Amino acid sequence: MKKAEKRSCAVRAASTVAEPVAAAKATSRPSVVQVLRERGLIQDVTNDTLEAVASKEALSVYCGFDPTAESLHLGNLLGIIVLSWFQRCGHQPVALLGGATGRVGDPSGRSLERPILSEEEIERNVAGIRRILEKLLTSADPTGPKPLLLNNLDWFGGMSFLGFLRDVGKYARVGTMLSRDAVKSRMEADGEGISFTEFTYQLLQGYDFVHLHRTHGVRVQVGGSDQFGNIVGGVDLMRKVPGATTTQQCFGLTFPLLTKSDGTKMGKSASGAVWLAADKLSPFKFYQYLLTSIPDSDVIKFLKMLTFLDLGEIARLEAAMQAPDYKPNLAQQVLAAEVTRFVHGEEGLQQALKTTQALAPGARTQLDADTLEAIAGEAPSASLAVEQVVECPLADVMVAAGLQPSKGAARRMIKGGGVAVNNAKVSDEMHKLTAADLIEGRLLLLAAGKKNKMLVRVQQS
Ligand SMILES: Nc1ncnc2c1ncn2[C@@H]1O[C@H](COP(=O)(O)OP(=O)(O)OP(=O)(O)O)[C@@H](O)[C@H]1O
Ligand SMILES: N[C@@H](Cc1ccc(O)cc1)C(=O)O
């Protein structure tokens, strides 16, 4: 473990939720900026003094998430991890749900206007994202300062348009707003430019920072590098809005964006998002993504950014990858296990591992109903009546389930040793299934060949 991380744990244990910021000022804190830098989690900071300030004082730090989908995704996990590192170093994490900003739409990194979401959709999305943030920020460091979860609809909802123009808009310069990348790129591209609504987005996010500073003493905003303009806008506004600034300096910190193999940003609106909610992507599929989609050339970077493993351990893995006896994919296995455990808990990881084993080509693992249920979403399935299964020849069942085109083909395959029932090989072509083959009286896993598996749901009459 690197010195900074060792110290971070020590200080975390010593700091309590109730510890007032003033008392913490006297202590020397672990350098969260150093930890983040060593892990490749810093793209930009608005002012280099953040490192010194964060080492001396407990800060409140926020990251915002707009409710544009029901779940967060792997790219968003970086914001949660950065908040968690602040928390581990004794700072107060604040997660902000964009109930208001989600109704406006951030133009950052988007070449087209965002569609307007219905009120119901936004509320559903807020609830889904809130569940994830609550779970992950609480489990990331149960002993650190308790995370705060806020929704910016709570302060924008009651603000009138005139109030906004007077109390916020008056302090923003249109020239500066036009110079932000997100606006400039829309104005310069052939297309429809940008709506007034999305143009004002930067002011809403800027005012969030002002409001959070006033009401919760927040001094740092973190976000992906696409958020730099909005974050700087907040720091600027802070200096201008009367009564917003205190003598305390405020900071922005951005982290690099996680990209897909084609170099584009992993996003929630993009297709094939790697969702964090289990009902949108099973722990098994989440695990499989990390296991199979991250090339050797990226895996160490991902281990540093997406896990809390100590850097010494990651360095040992990196060295092992160069050794002739390196077992291919070991680093990806560690990455997949660590991130799945963080997102889905130990139970989710164990389910993902069991399913991986059960579905592995030629697997001979013993199956239980839980594992079979997990497989249900991952392998094709068929539904048969109990009379079509119990006391019926295996070959007939394979045909009825659609696993083989004819009884003759099924029998040949059984005879050739290519068929398994619940992962146990069957080689008698006349084999009949019995009630004892049904797991919990309702499930059966058939395999024809190493990769072709089918879950059969058996309906009792
Ligand atoms: N691929 C990514 N890598 C790192 N951070 C990301 C990534 N995608 C989003 N973020 C960050 O997550 C935070 C919340 O992003 P937000 O949910 O509003 O947008 P998004 O996930 O990018 O969605 P969309 O695809 O609709 O733009 C921001 O700080 C953003 O920079
Ligand atoms: N603009 C951020 C989300 C956000 C919303 C409100 C904020 O105050 C901060 C961040 C994004 O789209 O990624």
* Number of extended strands: 11
Main sheet characteristics: 6 strands, mixed
Radius of gyration: 27 Å
Return the CATH topology of the largest domain.
Rossmann fold
Helix fraction bin = 40-55%
**Could you tell me the strand content as a percent range?**
5-15%
The quaternary state of the protein chains shown equals single chain
CATH superfamily membership of the largest domain: HUPs
CATH architecture name of the largest domain: 3-Layer(aba) Sandwich
Please state the overall shape, judged from the principal axes of the Cα atoms: elongated
Terminal Cα span:
60 Å
Pfam family, one: SYY_C-terminal
Protein name: Tyrosine--tRNA ligase
EC number: 6.1.1.1
Domain RNA-binding S4: 392-450
Task: Explain the overall architecture.
This protein has 461 residues and is α/β, with parallel strands linked by helices. It is built from 20 helices and eleven strands. Strand 10 and strand 11 form a beta hairpin. The N and C termini lie far apart (60 Å). The model is unreliable at 1-26 (pLDDT under 50). Bound molecules: adenosine-5'-triphosphate and tyrosine. Residues 63, 65-66, 68, 75-76, 78-79, 106, 223-224, 226-227, 257-258, 265-270 line the site of adenosine-5'-triphosphate.
